[in-house]
Every structure is written in structure tokens, then in C-alpha cells.
């Protein structure tokens, strides 16, 4: 495994020279300090690392999910609830040794997994740190907690590295995704990477109420049906698996720049949430 991991690290670091870590393909030289759309540079930037008790129960368990929040983002949704981290880049740059240390500290604290929050733009740095942490005894499952706007090539490289993929499935309409996160190709790309993720890890496996391996999809309900729930649920049911674990979330609230956009300037209603649940059930999806 160590030889394979070193090969993956080498491939990922080469991508940093002409960055195509996500579908935006900015092609900047991150090693030389150039920055593209996400804002990330040579080193990973971390906002916080702690035992998180606000995630899904199968991740939290009794001792919490070992969350490491990364600064910057390749999507930068205008309504982001972590706006200060994703857009304003709160946090500090860390070395691979420091990042490995966070992982080991979270394991020592009894966390059930290492939960990489918004990792897409720092995958090379993360995998390099992971190699160091494994050498020091890290054994926890790795959770890839992402926005769903991923490079198919990078997901292929992560085969055998990630235990639990936890992508968002945000939007199905290209017009909505272009307006809210400047990514008209979001859903087309999401469909490709969801298949790859599921092919690698399968349906979510839960042992003694704790997730060990598999795919967990999050879908945030948006006001006025902007998330396009029907098309997303239909794709998951027909192209992924009827046993897919889906967390349909109702906690949307207008953050970031959302208050200035009429369609998303309010929370979702109970009716909108219940309608989304009914849509999922209509396609035979009942997990989560």
C-alpha cells in the first residue's frame, strides 16, 4: 500500500504544477504560488480541526467525527454557510507534518473517522499528510466531504485511499448552478463522479451504528425548488443504487450573499422539505 500511495502522491503533486484538481482547470502553477479560482496555494490552509458532533449520526457516534475544515473552495456558492472559510479564507497555512498531526490528534481523541471538509483543492497535500499519519499509526476511515464538483481523474487516483465519499448533490439545473456557484456543468460533472465514487466504495456500510465505508450523499433543499430535487433523485435511483444513503437537509438559511438574491433570501418551508422527501420516496429511495 505504501508504494501505491507514494505513486498517487507523485501523480497528484504533478497536477499542482498545472492545476486541474477540479473541473475549472485553472492550470496555474500552485507549486510556484500561483492561485486560481479556489484561491489555494502551495500549502493546505486549515480553518479548524476538532471532534464534530453536528454531522450525520453514523459519522458522529459517541466520540464525534474528526473534522478538519479546509479554507478556500472551488465552488464558492453565494449562499455558503461557511462563507468566512470558503470565500474569505479564514485559517492558516499548514505543513504536511502539521496536517498529519491533526489527524493523529483526532484519532487519539477517540473520533470515529477523519472527516476532510472541503478537501477538493488540497487533495495532493492531504494525501501526502495521510502517508505520514499512516506511518505513525493512523487507522481511522477517511471521509471525503466535498461539494460534488470534482475531477474524474482525481477521484480515480483516490481509489483505495478514501473510505467514505460524502459529496453534496446541490443542483440539477445548469442555469441555477451557473448563477449560484458559477458552474453550469455542475450536474453533468456530478453524475460522472458519483458513479466513480459508488464503483469504488459501494453503498454505505454501517457497523454498530458507525459508518465504515461507502457513499453518503447530501442534498440541501433550496427555496423555490432551485435545487432541482427530482432530477437528482431520479439519477441516483436509476444510475447509482436504490440503497444509496441520502441525507435530505432542510437547514438552508440565507448566508453569505444570499440576502441580496430574492429567490434564496429566505429559509425553506416545511412544505418544501416534505415535498423533497416525497420526491425521493417516489423513486424508491428510503435510506438516510
- Gross morphology is globular
User: Helices and strands: which structural class?
Assistant: alpha/beta
Number of helices: 10
> Which residues sit in consecutive blocks of at least 5 with pLDDT less than 50?
none
Total domain units: 1
Sheet with the most strands, sense and barrel status: 9 strands, mixed
Report Rg.
18 Å
**Which strand-content bin applies to the residues?**
15-25%
Structure summary, number of beta strands? 9
Mean pLDDT over the full residue set? 97
Overall CATH architecture: Alpha-Beta Barrel
Helix-strand sequence: HEHEHEHEHEHEHHEEHEH
What's the CATH C level?
A: Alpha Beta
Classify the fold: give the CATH topology.
Answer: TIM Barrel
Determine the CATH superfamily: Aldolase class I
Measured as a percent range, the helix fraction is: 25-40%
Q: Span from first to last CA? A: 32 Å
Describe this structure in words.
- By secondary structure, this protein is α/β, with parallel strands linked by helices.
- It has one domain (43-282): Aldolase class I (TIM Barrel).
- It is 36% helix and 17% strand.
- It contains 10 helices and 9 strands.
- It has helices at residues 2-16, 57-60, 83-86, 96-108, 123-135, 152-157, 174-181, 186-201, 229-240, 270-282, and strands spanning 44-52, 65-70, 92-94, 114-117, 142-146, 164-167, 205-207, 210-220, 245-249.
- Strands 1, 2, 3, 4, 5, 6, 7, 8 and 9 form a 9-stranded mixed sheet that branches.
- α1 (2-16) packs antiparallel against α5.
- It is globular.
- The model has no long low-confidence stretch (mean pLDDT 97).
Amino acid at each position: 500500500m505504501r508504494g501505491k500511495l507514494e505513486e498517487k502522491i507523485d501523480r497528484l503533486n504533478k497536477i499542482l504544477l498545472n492545476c486541474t484538481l477540479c473541473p475549472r482547470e485553472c492550470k496555474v502553477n500552485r507549486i510556484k504560488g500561483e492561485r486560481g479560482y479556489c484561491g489555494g496555494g502551495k500549502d493546505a490552509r486549515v480553518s479548524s480541526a476538532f471532534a464534530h458532533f453536528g454531522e450525520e449520526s453514523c459519522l458522529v457516534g459517541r466520540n464525534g467525527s474528526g473534522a478538519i475544515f479546509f479554507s478556500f473552495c472551488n465552488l464558492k456558492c453565494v449562499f455558503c454557510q461557511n462563507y468566512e472559510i470558503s470565500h474569505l479564507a479564514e485559517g492558516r497555512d499548514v505543513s504536511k507534518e502539521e496536517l498529519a498531526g491533526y489527524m493523529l490528534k483526532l484519532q487519539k481523541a477517540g473520533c470515529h473517522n477523519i472527516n476532510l471538509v472541503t478537501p477538493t483543492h488540497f487533495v495532493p497535500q492531504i494525501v501526502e499528510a495521510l502517508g505520514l499519519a499512516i506511518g505513525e499509526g493512523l487507522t481511522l476511515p477517511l471521509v471525503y466531504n466535498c461539494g460534488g464538483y470534482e475531477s474524474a481523474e482525481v477521484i480515480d487516483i483516490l481509489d483505495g485511499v478514501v473510505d467514505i465519499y460524502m459529496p453534496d448533490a446541490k443542483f440539477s439545473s445548469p442555469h441555477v448552478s451557473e448563477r449560484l456557484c458559477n458552474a453550469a456543468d455542475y450536474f453533468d460533472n456530478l453524475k460522472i463522479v458519483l458513479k466513480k465514487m459508488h464503483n469504488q466504495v459501494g453503498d454505505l456500510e454501517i457497523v454498530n451504528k458507525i459508518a465504515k465505508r461507502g457513499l453518503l450523499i447530501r442534498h440541501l433543499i433550496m427555496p423555490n425548488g432551485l435545487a432541482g430535487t427530482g432530477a437528482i433523485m431520479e439519477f441516483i435511483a436509476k444510475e447509482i443504487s436504490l440503497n444509496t444513503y441520502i441525507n435530505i437537509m432542510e437547514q438552508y438559511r440565507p448566508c453569505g450573499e444570499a440576502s441580496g438574491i430574492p429567490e434564496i433570501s429566505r429559509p425553506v418551508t416545511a412544505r418544501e422539505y416534505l415535498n423533497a422527501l416525497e420526491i425521493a420516496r417516489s423513486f424508491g429511495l428510503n435510506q438516510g
